[in-house]
Amino acid sequence: MSIPVRIEDLAQALAEYDSGYLLTNRAGRTKVITVEAVVSGNRIVAEGVGHGSTANLVENPQCTLMFPPAERHGYTLLIDGTGTVVEGTLTMEPTTAVRHRPAAHADGPPAPGAAADCVNDCRPLS
């Protein structure tokens, strides 16, 4: 199940997660590094990005931030966007974000914003 996250709600969503992973790609090879990301205005910022990820983003600025669930069978937060790195600091302009977990993990914690008596992946419609 996937639950879209509005860009303007990313700071609140990101506060529910710990470290994440920056995924970059160049020439068909994906590089993954651990990051501590924060929302700054309408962008996401993470420090400590190395030369390999920087080179990938120069060639292909499309990137993904992935934040694994804090609880077993919880939701992973995925943020797609475009990124640049200056002096080791990533600045990402997010384009889409979603909380996701496979249907097989529906026995995990309730969906964010789910009704208190919901036993599966219920969530309010907006």
Automatic annotation (TrEMBL):
Highest taxon of the lineage: Bacteria
Listed name of the protein: Pyridoxamine 5'-phosphate oxidase putative domain-containing protein
Organism whose genome encodes this protein: Microlunatus phosphovorus (strain ATCC 700054 / DSM 10555 / JCM 9379 / NBRC 101784 / NCIMB 13414 / VKM Ac-1990 / NM-1)
